[in-house]
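Could someone model xanthosine-5'-monophosphate with this protein?
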Amino acid sequence: MGTLEKVVIVDFGGQYTQLIARRIRELKVYCEIKPYNVSLEELVEAGPSALIFSGGSASVYDQEAPCCDQGFYRMGIPLLGICYGMQLMAKDLGGEVMRARHQEYGRTFLTSREQSPLLEGLGKRFEAWMSHGDQVMKLPAGFEVIAASENSPISAMADEKRKFFGLQFHPEVVHTPQGQQILSNFLYRVCGFSGDWTMENFIEGSITEIRQKVGEEGKVVCGLSGGIDSSVAAVLVHQAIGSRLICIFVDHGLLRKGEKEQVVKTFREKFQMELIAVEAGSEFLALLQGVIDPEKKRKIIGNHFIRVFEREAEKIGGIEYLVQGTLYPDIIESGTATASVIKSHHNVGGLPDDMKLSLIEPLKYLFKDEVRRVAQELGLPEDIVWRHPFPGPGMAVRILGEVTPEKVEILQEADDIIIEEIKKAGLYRDIWQAFAVLPNILSVGVKGDSRTYAHTVVLRAVTSQDAMTADWYRMPYDVLENISNRLVNEIPQVNRFVYDITTKPPATIEWE
Ligand code: XMP
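Reply:
Sure, complex below.
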């Protein structure tokens, strides 16, 4: 991806930094986020064609205020400072920033002052979202005011010669209705970009990169789970090096109904990939016998998963690389290299360091929605592209108490019915995650003329952006009714159905 147009967003700790990145990518320009203390050398190495300074919660005159290498201003490339980013730029270039007399939070109306390419097409008066305590009081040399609000006379500033711009407000949030137009103006009118960040370009670029990395001989292994991230990563690597990629799919016996068959069919038949499907259900269930504690279950499954994976990888022999489906948010969330390692290991069930494999992470610069677009471009089936997330330990953390083969089967059936009804109602994509839980509660009921003493099935269905917080999904009554009827009629061991309406927090999405 070396030749792409690229924006680097320098992060000063603003809550919207990731959002800026997403907006820029929506406008078909590639961008990356770097922490404010990135060195000039590293920044130059990244090869940006423009910079954006993000917002941040500090005040530029604070002792500990984040600042950047002054060399950034001498790189000779366009720069857009947003909120704190604007204030820092103003201060660094010789202007003045002060605590605002009227602090502005929320919706504000601005009036544009000068013709500026940044504000083209916005009209004389426009609405914007402000959230600041400080403001620029004196412009640095070479700048002029391009927009003002009632309370902040310098709401936007420009030095068109150097192509430096500052915005006191946030163009990246939806509350600035023409924000995307402003960002687009920056990219296309100021920077003169052509918009070369498309999924086709991404695919082409990563295939070339993977080929270069792996060379003519290298053998690569991938732990395929059937989830979208590992699936897309595997298909990309397969397109780059063909049968030198070997995928290992471990069936721990705790998957959703039909999942294994679907994965095998998709990757072996449709994509003609080398896929080893390991049937390890009985091994895992034996190890889980009598185990009730959720953390113990997770540990047992995680550890054994590694053992099975290693066993299979050793059989292949001569492997040098491991593919992982790490995504960009995993990497930028904490801003450190080590965090990305922890998270990426987690992706394949925690593979140990002593496997001494070099990592291939083709998705490490993508957001989830971009991965979905790549998946569609690569021709992955809809079922995989839109499939709800599924925890590594699978059904084991959805069966409370001891996991037995019978309970797994009940839960798989129940889950299948639930998903089928939700899909039939056309609601599957509105929901972040929907699944059945077996709470291990037996209750009394009556079926026909006989008394029953059978299982309760719980439905958990939530909406969420990132699984950090979640709300329960307002499921229509008729869908609940259909699910309820089918569960108690079609599964003999079930006589009751309940719907979980707890938010996260305080509950988690999974029950264990
Ligand atoms: P919780 O239950 O913590 O789940 O609200 C948040 C999201 O993470 C998924 N999850 C897991 N994913 N291994 C995974 O790969 C796990 O051990 C695991 N536990 C929870 C969960 O399904 C939800 O999407």
